[in-house]
Design brief:
Elements (H helix, E strand, L loop, with lengths): L1 H20 L5 E7 L5 H11 L2 E7 L2 H9 L6 E2 L3 H9 L34 E13 L5 H7 L13 E4 L2 H11 L9 H18 L2 E3 L2 H7 L5 E5 H10 L3 E4 L7 E8 L6 H11 L2 H11 L6 H8 L27 H16 L1
Parallel strand pairs: 1-2, 1-3, 5-6, 5-7
Antiparallel strand pairs: 3-9, 4-7, 4-8, 4-9
Length: about 350
Protein backbone atom coordinates (compact mmCIF):
# COMPACT_ATOMS: atom_id res chain seq x y z
CA UNK A 1 0.00 0.00 0.00
CA UNK A 2 2.82 2.38 0.88
CA UNK A 3 4.58 1.43 -2.37
CA UNK A 4 1.37 2.19 -4.34
CA UNK A 5 1.04 5.53 -2.57
CA UNK A 6 4.65 6.37 -3.40
CA UNK A 7 4.06 5.54 -7.05
CA UNK A 8 0.90 7.65 -7.10
CA UNK A 9 2.66 10.61 -5.54
CA UNK A 10 5.48 10.30 -8.07
CA UNK A 11 2.98 10.27 -10.95
CA UNK A 12 1.20 13.32 -9.58
CA UNK A 13 4.48 15.18 -9.30
CA UNK A 14 5.37 14.28 -12.89
CA UNK A 15 1.99 15.48 -14.13
CA UNK A 16 2.48 18.68 -12.18
CA UNK A 17 5.87 19.22 -13.81
CA UNK A 18 4.40 18.66 -17.26
CA UNK A 19 1.52 21.04 -16.60
CA UNK A 20 3.95 23.58 -15.18
CA UNK A 21 6.02 23.36 -18.33
CA UNK A 22 2.88 23.98 -20.41
CA UNK A 23 1.68 27.04 -18.55
CA UNK A 24 -0.07 29.51 -20.82
CA UNK A 25 2.27 32.15 -22.20
CA UNK A 26 1.70 35.84 -21.68
CA UNK A 27 -0.06 37.34 -24.70
CA UNK A 28 0.80 40.81 -25.98
CA UNK A 29 -1.98 42.27 -28.12
CA UNK A 30 -1.01 44.92 -30.67
CA UNK A 31 -3.38 46.94 -32.88
CA UNK A 32 -1.54 48.47 -35.83
CA UNK A 33 -1.85 49.54 -39.50
CA UNK A 34 -1.85 46.78 -42.08
CA UNK A 35 1.42 45.40 -43.48
CA UNK A 36 3.41 47.57 -41.09
CA UNK A 37 5.92 45.24 -39.46
CA UNK A 38 8.64 42.81 -40.48
CA UNK A 39 7.31 39.47 -39.24
CA UNK A 40 10.74 38.29 -38.11
CA UNK A 41 10.72 40.99 -35.44
CA UNK A 42 7.65 39.37 -33.91
CA UNK A 43 9.25 35.92 -33.90
CA UNK A 44 12.41 37.27 -32.28
CA UNK A 45 10.45 38.98 -29.52
CA UNK A 46 8.41 35.84 -28.84
CA UNK A 47 11.57 33.75 -28.59
CA UNK A 48 13.40 36.25 -26.42
CA UNK A 49 10.61 36.66 -23.87
CA UNK A 50 8.83 33.31 -24.26
CA UNK A 51 5.52 35.03 -24.99
CA UNK A 52 2.89 35.16 -27.71
CA UNK A 53 2.34 38.29 -29.79
CA UNK A 54 -1.06 38.74 -31.41
CA UNK A 55 -1.40 41.52 -33.97
CA UNK A 56 -4.60 42.91 -35.39
CA UNK A 57 -4.61 45.37 -38.28
CA UNK A 58 -6.67 48.44 -39.05
CA UNK A 59 -7.10 50.34 -42.32
CA UNK A 60 -7.44 53.81 -40.82
CA UNK A 61 -7.04 55.65 -37.54
CA UNK A 62 -10.79 56.21 -37.50
CA UNK A 63 -11.43 52.46 -37.78
CA UNK A 64 -9.05 51.91 -34.88
CA UNK A 65 -10.88 54.48 -32.76
CA UNK A 66 -14.25 52.91 -33.56
CA UNK A 67 -13.06 49.50 -32.37
CA UNK A 68 -11.68 50.98 -29.16
CA UNK A 69 -15.00 52.69 -28.46
CA UNK A 70 -16.78 49.38 -29.12
CA UNK A 71 -14.87 47.85 -26.20
CA UNK A 72 -12.05 46.01 -27.99
CA UNK A 73 -8.98 45.90 -25.74
CA UNK A 74 -5.31 45.93 -26.75
CA UNK A 75 -2.01 46.47 -24.99
CA UNK A 76 -0.23 48.49 -27.67
CA UNK A 77 -1.71 50.76 -30.32
CA UNK A 78 0.19 52.32 -33.24
CA UNK A 79 -1.91 55.31 -34.35
CA UNK A 80 -0.93 58.53 -36.11
CA UNK A 81 -0.12 61.84 -34.48
CA UNK A 82 -3.58 63.47 -34.69
CA UNK A 83 -5.29 60.37 -33.33
CA UNK A 84 -2.78 60.18 -30.48
CA UNK A 85 -3.68 63.79 -29.72
CA UNK A 86 -7.32 62.75 -29.48
CA UNK A 87 -6.62 59.68 -27.33
CA UNK A 88 -4.59 61.77 -24.89
CA UNK A 89 -7.34 64.39 -24.68
CA UNK A 90 -9.87 61.65 -23.96
CA UNK A 91 -7.64 60.07 -21.29
CA UNK A 92 -7.36 56.72 -23.06
CA UNK A 93 -3.60 56.21 -22.78
CA UNK A 94 -1.12 55.36 -20.03
CA UNK A 95 1.93 57.46 -19.29
CA UNK A 96 5.15 55.54 -19.92
CA UNK A 97 7.71 54.51 -17.33
CA UNK A 98 10.78 55.81 -19.14
CA UNK A 99 13.11 54.02 -16.73
CA UNK A 100 12.08 50.83 -18.56
CA UNK A 101 12.84 52.34 -21.97
CA UNK A 102 16.63 52.80 -22.08
CA UNK A 103 16.66 52.69 -25.89
CA UNK A 104 14.83 56.01 -26.03
CA UNK A 105 18.27 57.61 -26.15
CA UNK A 106 18.66 56.42 -29.76
CA UNK A 107 15.65 58.33 -31.11
CA UNK A 108 16.15 61.13 -33.63
CA UNK A 109 16.19 64.45 -31.73
CA UNK A 110 13.86 66.00 -34.34
CA UNK A 111 11.14 63.59 -33.27
CA UNK A 112 11.26 64.39 -29.57
CA UNK A 113 8.59 66.43 -27.73
CA UNK A 114 6.10 66.62 -30.62
CA UNK A 115 3.06 68.89 -30.48
CA UNK A 116 0.74 65.96 -29.77
CA UNK A 117 2.89 64.76 -26.81
CA UNK A 118 4.91 67.76 -25.73
CA UNK A 119 6.78 66.04 -22.92
CA UNK A 120 7.16 62.59 -24.49
CA UNK A 121 4.99 61.13 -21.74
CA UNK A 122 2.83 58.78 -23.79
CA UNK A 123 4.55 57.92 -27.08
CA UNK A 124 7.49 56.12 -28.67
CA UNK A 125 7.92 56.88 -32.41
CA UNK A 126 7.51 53.89 -34.69
CA UNK A 127 7.82 55.30 -38.23
CA UNK A 128 7.58 58.76 -39.74
CA UNK A 129 7.29 60.27 -43.17
CA UNK A 130 5.46 62.66 -45.44
CA UNK A 131 2.86 62.89 -48.20
CA UNK A 132 4.11 63.86 -51.63
CA UNK A 133 3.99 63.31 -55.35
CA UNK A 134 5.56 60.19 -56.82
CA UNK A 135 6.26 60.98 -60.46
CA UNK A 136 7.59 59.40 -63.63
CA UNK A 137 10.68 61.39 -64.60
CA UNK A 138 10.07 60.48 -68.25
CA UNK A 139 6.82 62.46 -68.25
CA UNK A 140 7.13 65.03 -65.47
CA UNK A 141 10.10 67.34 -64.94
CA UNK A 142 11.42 68.54 -61.61
CA UNK A 143 11.24 72.08 -63.02
CA UNK A 144 7.48 71.69 -63.59
CA UNK A 145 6.98 70.44 -60.05
CA UNK A 146 9.02 73.24 -58.49
CA UNK A 147 7.19 75.91 -60.51
CA UNK A 148 3.66 74.60 -60.06
CA UNK A 149 3.74 72.76 -56.72
CA UNK A 150 0.42 71.13 -55.84
CA UNK A 151 -1.22 72.98 -58.74
CA UNK A 152 0.45 70.57 -61.15
CA UNK A 153 -2.34 68.17 -60.21
CA UNK A 154 -4.73 70.47 -62.12
CA UNK A 155 -2.48 70.88 -65.16
CA UNK A 156 -4.44 69.60 -68.19
CA UNK A 157 -1.26 68.06 -69.55
CA UNK A 158 -1.85 65.31 -67.00
CA UNK A 159 -5.56 64.73 -67.64
CA UNK A 160 -6.54 61.19 -66.55
CA UNK A 161 -2.89 60.63 -65.60
CA UNK A 162 -2.97 60.98 -61.81
CA UNK A 163 -3.59 58.51 -58.99
CA UNK A 164 -5.03 60.34 -56.00
CA UNK A 165 -4.95 58.70 -52.57
CA UNK A 166 -8.50 58.32 -51.27
CA UNK A 167 -8.04 60.04 -47.91
CA UNK A 168 -10.26 62.97 -47.02
CA UNK A 169 -7.73 64.31 -44.54
CA UNK A 170 -4.79 64.27 -46.96
CA UNK A 171 -6.95 65.49 -49.85
CA UNK A 172 -7.97 68.61 -47.94
CA UNK A 173 -4.38 69.02 -46.74
CA UNK A 174 -3.26 69.24 -50.38
CA UNK A 175 -5.96 71.72 -51.33
CA UNK A 176 -5.44 73.89 -48.25
CA UNK A 177 -1.67 73.96 -48.81
CA UNK A 178 -2.15 74.77 -52.51
CA UNK A 179 -4.25 77.76 -51.40
CA UNK A 180 -1.70 78.89 -48.82
CA UNK A 181 -3.68 77.88 -45.73
CA UNK A 182 -2.87 75.75 -42.70
CA UNK A 183 -3.98 72.15 -42.99
CA UNK A 184 -5.22 72.44 -39.37
CA UNK A 185 -7.55 75.35 -40.09
CA UNK A 186 -10.99 75.62 -38.51
CA UNK A 187 -11.98 78.50 -40.81
CA UNK A 188 -15.05 77.34 -42.74
CA UNK A 189 -14.40 79.79 -45.59
CA UNK A 190 -10.95 78.29 -46.11
CA UNK A 191 -12.34 74.77 -45.90
CA UNK A 192 -15.03 75.59 -48.49
CA UNK A 193 -12.40 77.13 -50.76
CA UNK A 194 -10.41 73.90 -50.45
CA UNK A 195 -13.58 71.98 -51.33
CA UNK A 196 -13.96 74.06 -54.51
CA UNK A 197 -10.30 73.39 -55.38
CA UNK A 198 -10.81 69.64 -55.00
CA UNK A 199 -14.10 69.72 -56.90
CA UNK A 200 -12.40 71.47 -59.79
CA UNK A 201 -9.60 68.91 -59.73
CA UNK A 202 -12.02 65.98 -59.67
CA UNK A 203 -14.30 67.27 -62.43
CA UNK A 204 -11.63 68.51 -64.84
CA UNK A 205 -8.75 66.02 -64.39
CA UNK A 206 -10.50 62.62 -64.21
CA UNK A 207 -8.17 61.33 -61.47
CA UNK A 208 -8.28 57.75 -60.27
CA UNK A 209 -8.99 57.58 -56.53
CA UNK A 210 -7.09 54.69 -54.99
CA UNK A 211 -5.84 53.23 -51.71
CA UNK A 212 -2.97 50.75 -51.34
CA UNK A 213 -3.46 49.47 -54.89
CA UNK A 214 -1.51 52.53 -56.00
CA UNK A 215 1.71 50.78 -54.93
CA UNK A 216 1.42 47.98 -57.46
CA UNK A 217 0.08 50.32 -60.13
CA UNK A 218 3.04 52.66 -59.85
CA UNK A 219 5.62 49.89 -59.95
CA UNK A 220 5.03 49.97 -63.70
CA UNK A 221 4.40 53.74 -63.74
CA UNK A 222 0.88 53.27 -65.07
CA UNK A 223 0.28 56.98 -64.60
CA UNK A 224 2.60 59.98 -64.57
CA UNK A 225 1.89 61.00 -60.98
CA UNK A 226 0.49 59.58 -57.77
CA UNK A 227 -0.15 61.01 -54.33
CA UNK A 228 1.66 58.65 -51.99
CA UNK A 229 2.96 58.24 -48.49
CA UNK A 230 6.72 58.47 -48.44
CA UNK A 231 7.37 54.92 -47.26
CA UNK A 232 5.27 53.41 -50.03
CA UNK A 233 7.01 55.72 -52.49
CA UNK A 234 10.44 54.68 -51.17
CA UNK A 235 9.61 51.04 -51.85
CA UNK A 236 8.28 51.72 -55.36
CA UNK A 237 11.31 53.87 -56.19
CA UNK A 238 13.63 51.07 -55.10
CA UNK A 239 11.95 48.89 -57.75
CA UNK A 240 11.69 51.46 -60.57
CA UNK A 241 14.58 53.87 -61.15
CA UNK A 242 12.46 56.11 -63.42
CA UNK A 243 10.38 57.30 -60.48
CA UNK A 244 11.13 60.10 -58.03
CA UNK A 245 9.40 61.81 -55.11
CA UNK A 246 8.60 65.49 -54.60
CA UNK A 247 7.32 67.45 -51.60
CA UNK A 248 5.81 70.77 -52.84
CA UNK A 249 7.21 73.93 -51.31
CA UNK A 250 3.73 75.09 -50.22
CA UNK A 251 4.04 72.45 -47.53
CA UNK A 252 2.73 69.00 -46.75
CA UNK A 253 1.87 66.65 -43.92
CA UNK A 254 4.83 65.39 -41.90
CA UNK A 255 3.33 62.52 -39.98
CA UNK A 256 4.50 60.30 -37.14
CA UNK A 257 3.03 56.95 -36.18
CA UNK A 258 3.90 56.05 -32.60
CA UNK A 259 3.54 53.23 -30.12
CA UNK A 260 1.27 53.94 -27.16
CA UNK A 261 -0.15 51.85 -24.33
CA UNK A 262 -3.89 51.68 -23.89
CA UNK A 263 -5.38 52.34 -20.46
CA UNK A 264 -7.13 48.99 -20.91
CA UNK A 265 -3.80 47.15 -21.37
CA UNK A 266 -3.43 43.88 -19.46
CA UNK A 267 0.31 43.44 -20.08
CA UNK A 268 1.82 46.86 -19.38
CA UNK A 269 5.32 45.65 -18.46
CA UNK A 270 5.46 43.42 -21.52
CA UNK A 271 4.26 46.32 -23.67
CA UNK A 272 7.16 48.43 -22.41
CA UNK A 273 9.55 45.58 -23.21
CA UNK A 274 8.14 45.56 -26.76
CA UNK A 275 8.61 49.30 -27.17
CA UNK A 276 12.20 49.12 -26.03
CA UNK A 277 12.81 46.07 -28.22
CA UNK A 278 11.57 47.91 -31.33
CA UNK A 279 14.17 50.65 -30.71
CA UNK A 280 17.06 48.15 -30.71
CA UNK A 281 19.34 48.92 -33.66
CA UNK A 282 19.14 45.49 -35.33
CA UNK A 283 15.38 45.22 -34.92
CA UNK A 284 14.73 48.78 -36.09
CA UNK A 285 17.02 48.22 -39.09
CA UNK A 286 15.20 45.05 -40.10
CA UNK A 287 11.80 46.69 -39.71
CA UNK A 288 12.65 49.85 -41.65
CA UNK A 289 14.50 47.98 -44.39
CA UNK A 290 11.55 45.66 -45.04
CA UNK A 291 8.67 48.13 -44.66
CA UNK A 292 10.35 51.14 -46.29
CA UNK A 293 9.38 53.90 -43.86
CA UNK A 294 11.85 56.18 -42.13
CA UNK A 295 13.17 54.83 -38.84
CA UNK A 296 13.06 57.01 -35.72
CA UNK A 297 16.31 55.35 -34.60
CA UNK A 298 18.83 57.87 -35.89
CA UNK A 299 21.67 55.43 -36.59
CA UNK A 300 19.36 53.15 -38.55
CA UNK A 301 18.06 56.09 -40.56
CA UNK A 302 21.61 57.21 -41.36
CA UNK A 303 22.84 53.74 -42.30
CA UNK A 304 19.90 52.99 -44.59
CA UNK A 305 20.19 56.34 -46.36
CA UNK A 306 24.00 56.61 -46.66
CA UNK A 307 26.00 55.64 -49.73
CA UNK A 308 25.95 51.93 -48.87
CA UNK A 309 22.34 51.88 -47.68
CA UNK A 310 19.29 50.45 -49.40
CA UNK A 311 17.64 53.87 -49.63
CA UNK A 312 20.65 55.94 -50.71
CA UNK A 313 19.48 58.78 -52.97
CA UNK A 314 15.85 57.89 -52.28
CA UNK A 315 14.13 61.20 -51.47
CA UNK A 316 11.04 59.44 -50.17
CA UNK A 317 13.00 57.79 -47.35
CA UNK A 318 14.67 61.03 -46.29
CA UNK A 319 11.96 63.69 -45.86
CA UNK A 320 13.27 67.07 -44.75
CA UNK A 321 11.93 67.79 -41.26
CA UNK A 322 12.92 71.46 -41.21
CA UNK A 323 10.78 73.02 -43.98
CA UNK A 324 8.79 75.96 -42.63
CA UNK A 325 5.50 75.26 -44.46
CA UNK A 326 5.18 71.61 -43.43
CA UNK A 327 2.86 70.69 -40.57
CA UNK A 328 1.74 67.77 -38.45
CA UNK A 329 -1.96 67.12 -38.08
CA UNK A 330 -3.53 67.84 -34.73
CA UNK A 331 -6.91 66.55 -33.60
CA UNK A 332 -9.40 69.06 -34.94
CA UNK A 333 -12.98 67.91 -34.54
CA UNK A 334 -14.42 70.88 -36.44
CA UNK A 335 -12.21 70.18 -39.44
CA UNK A 336 -12.91 66.44 -39.32
CA UNK A 337 -16.66 66.92 -39.32
CA UNK A 338 -16.55 69.59 -42.00
CA UNK A 339 -14.50 67.63 -44.53
CA UNK A 340 -16.14 64.22 -44.12
CA UNK A 341 -19.27 64.97 -46.15
CA UNK A 342 -17.47 67.38 -48.47
CA UNK A 343 -15.02 64.67 -49.58
CA UNK A 344 -17.87 62.38 -50.58
CA UNK A 345 -19.32 65.20 -52.66
CA UNK A 346 -15.95 65.77 -54.34
CA UNK A 347 -15.72 62.19 -55.55
CA UNK A 348 -19.25 61.98 -56.98
CA UNK A 349 -18.82 65.06 -59.16
Amino acid sequence: MKKLSSILITLLLLVGCVNGGNQEKQVLRIFMPSEYIAEDTIYEFEDMFNVKVVTEEFESNEQMYTKLMAGNNYDILIPSDYMIDRLIQEDMLLKLDKSLLPNLEYINEDLRNPAYDKHDEYTVPYFYGSVGILYDTNNVSLNELENEGWEILRNQKFYNDVYFYDSERDAFMIALKALGYSMNTSNLDEINEAYEWLSSFSSTMSPVFVLDAVIESMLDANKSMAIMYSGDAAFVMSENEDLSFFMPNEGTNIWVDAMVISKEAKEVDLALEWMNFMLDYDIAYLNSEEIGYSSPVIDVYKDLSNEDGLFYGNDAYTPDLDRENDETFSHNEELRQAISDLWIRVKVK
